[in-house]
Amino acid sequence: MSAAFPERLKHVHFIAIGGTGMGSLAGLLKARGIRITGSDKKLYPPMSTALSDWGIAVVEGFAPSNVLDEEPDLVVVGNAVRADNPEAVAAIDSGVPYRSFSDALYEIAISKRHCVTVSGTHGKTTTTNLMAQILLATGRDPSLLVGGISLDFEGSFREGEGEHFVVEGDEYDTAFFDKTPKFLHYHPDTLILTSVEFDHADIYRDLDHVKSAFRELVGSMKSTGRIVAAVGHDGVRDVLADASCEVDGYAIQCDGCLERPGLANWWGYDLRPEPDGLRFTLEDRKAGRSVEVVSPLFGAHNAENVVGVLAALDSLGVPLDDSIEALRQHLGVKRRQEVRGVAAGVTVIDDFAHHPTAVAGTIEAISQRHRGSRVVALLEPRTNTSRRALFQDDYVEALSRAGRVAIAEVGDEPIYSNTGEVTECLSSAAVAEALRGRGVDAQAFSETQSIVDWVVDGRRAGDVVLVMSNGAFDGIWEKLLAALEAANATSG
């Protein structure tokens, strides 16, 4: 570990500031009155916009002078930074105190609070934001750091006066000098575990390797802590064996869960999409009562996230009725089923989904929210994992739920991995061909404009276009709305 930094920080420099976590911590410290500097490669919204709004200037490119010209009290190193990064090398060689993002966040903001960490392969951002929103709405004044731009908090961080800090806990590694998962650094008092599936193929060999990280997280919990776990998932159940603290299980329409005594203490069932939201029945098995819940979040996966949050809030002493009422106020997170606009009778929605499980759940949610509409799914596989062939059949299954599908062709950039495996790239054309074999109108495209033209030419009034990518997707939703408007003006 590098040298201790001053208790009163005046200047903090962030290397690779554009990550959602890094940028959010920078914003939190700027709000404290600390001078913030940062550098990164080219940024894109929403974090580029957020940093600008917070008055944080970002230098494009990395250079030792960014650290050495005005030596900061602390350098925070993002997990995207390699060991040969010139700024990281300069900081280490000069003796400037440095920390990984995760350690800096814990030491500066979390350590003296009750930490609620939300972990899992899917649902972390939505669940983290929802947990903090209900804590705030019920008068608990929490702090928050979430991996997205919250519509409830108009940003990705919040510093309150209450005892709780709600943070999104990622299983990705921490830094080039610390290859442990980030979530191990937050030392949660309450842990929400939403799912355990294979992801991050650049650092994990297989599902068992992923499970080993979550087992370590579970095993690290204090005996006085609590795990709120989605026990309807095999992967989650598999990692709970070494828990030394209390485990509170939750599930939603999970075959067999009710037959497991004490496993699913919280059970959501009878999901009914209605105009005012997704209604379902919630059974609190410990208290022996059932209540009706109306959630503004559609989809079974989101209903499950809601159940987990309500269970965690109950363990923190928030009355269930108060939580259910506050849930109605929830707005959500940017790029999570976010409506970007409506043009020519077509609704364009932006979503972060990229893993097949998330893709399937998001299509289901949009179909519930816009009943009777045709869902046109546009997918950009751009993560290290999604560009590999290992999920090819899963993408076919997930995308078959849509009415039309366009999938961007995977580029020829090398796939970075420290697992030492050579992997075959995903074939977007093969996915599209398999979908056509199932009767779905599907195409693979090498250019964004071709996707836009395909959507516009084949549009129907009432279509819902679902754009799915964890990146900018070449600004496709803006181009699509502009093209729809132009087509509507021409036809009118």
Description:
By secondary structure, this protein is an alpha/beta fold. It has three domains: about 10-105, Rossmann fold (3-Layer(aba) Sandwich), CATH 3.40.50; about 110-325, Mur-like, catalytic domain (UDP-N-acetylmuramoyl-L-alanine:D-glutamate ligase), CATH 3.40.1190.10; about 340-490, Mur ligase, C-terminal domain (Protein-Tyrosine Phosphatase, Chain A). It contains 15 helices and 23 strands. It has helices spanning about 20-30, 45-55, 65-70, 85-95, 100-110, 125-135, 205-220, 235-240, 300-315, 320-325, 355-370, 390-400, 430-435, 450-455, 475-490, and strands spanning about 10-15, 35-40, 60, 75, 100, 115-120, 145-150, 155-160, 165-170, 175, 180, 190-195, 225-230, 245-250, 265-275, 275-285, 290-295, 340-345, 345-350, 375-380, 405-410, 440-445, 465-470. It has a ten-stranded mixed beta sheet, with helices on both faces. Strands 18-19-23-20-21-22 form a six-stranded mixed beta sheet, with helices on both faces. Strands 3-2-1-4-5 form a five-stranded parallel beta sheet, sandwiched between helices. Helix 7 (about 205-220) links the parallel strand 12 and strand 13. It is globular and about 65 Å long. It starts with 10 loop residues before the first strand and ends with a helix.
